[in-house]
């Protein structure tokens, strides 16, 4: 079984908007939490700071750990072809913008970033991690 560890951030602003990144994979496009995979030897906090800077142009202060989400993706459902399942561990933090300006990643897995009012997120084409992260942050009601 393959494993991928990644760190993401829930970033909101004073207007109650949520920062999201647009993930692209071939013809599949969906909004996701800004963040991504850890590099060898990198701490999750450093990874989320690096990924936010790459994907959004912002520097951030990493706040509280909101949770860790674990998921096993069967080999037949993986985006990249593999005969092995993929175990993903997604570490989710709160983060606060401390500098920089909004800009888009080039040559990466995302192609833009944008602020969305929380009430409009439900209408977006998004990955499940968005709702999972919002529940962890107390910004979306938990499922019964």
UniProtKB/TrEMBL annotation:
Entry annotated with the keyword RNA-binding: no
Record GO terms (molecular function): hydrolase activity
Enzyme class: hydrolase
Pfam families in the record: NUDIX (PF00293)
Domain of life from the UniProt record: Bacteria
EC number: 3.6.1.-
UniProt keyword Hydrolase, yes or no: yes
Record key words, sorted: Hydrolase
Cofactor(s) the record lists: Mg(2+)
UniProt-listed InterPro entries: Nudix_hydrolase, NUDIX_hydrolase-like_dom_sf, NUDIX_hydrolase_CS, NUDIX_hydrolase_dom
Domain spans labelled Nudix hydrolase: 1-138
PANTHER family per UniProt: GDP-MANNOSE MANNOSYL HYDROLASE, MUTT_NUDIX FAMILY PROTEIN
Entry's family note: Belongs to the Nudix hydrolase family.
Protein name: Nucleoside triphosphatase NudI
């Amino acid at each position: 079984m393959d494993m991928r560890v990644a760190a993401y951030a829930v970033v909101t602003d004073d207007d109650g908007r949520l920062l999201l990144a647009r993930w692209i994979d071939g013809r599949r496009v969906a909004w996701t939490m800004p963040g991504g995979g850890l590099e060898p030897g990198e701490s999750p906090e450093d990874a989320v700071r690096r990924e936010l800077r790459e994907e959004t142009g912002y520097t951030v202060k990493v706040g509280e750990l909101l949770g860790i989400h674990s998921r096993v993706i069967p080999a037949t459902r993986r985006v990249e072809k593999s005969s092995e399942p993929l175990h993903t561990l997604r570490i989710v933090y709160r983060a606060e913008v401390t500098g920089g300006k909004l800009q888009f990643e080039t040559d990466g897995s995302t192609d833009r970033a944008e602020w969305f009012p929380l009430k409009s997120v439900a209408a977006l084409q998004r990955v499940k991690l968005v709702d999972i992260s919002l529940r962890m942050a107390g910004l979306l009601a938990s499922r019964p």
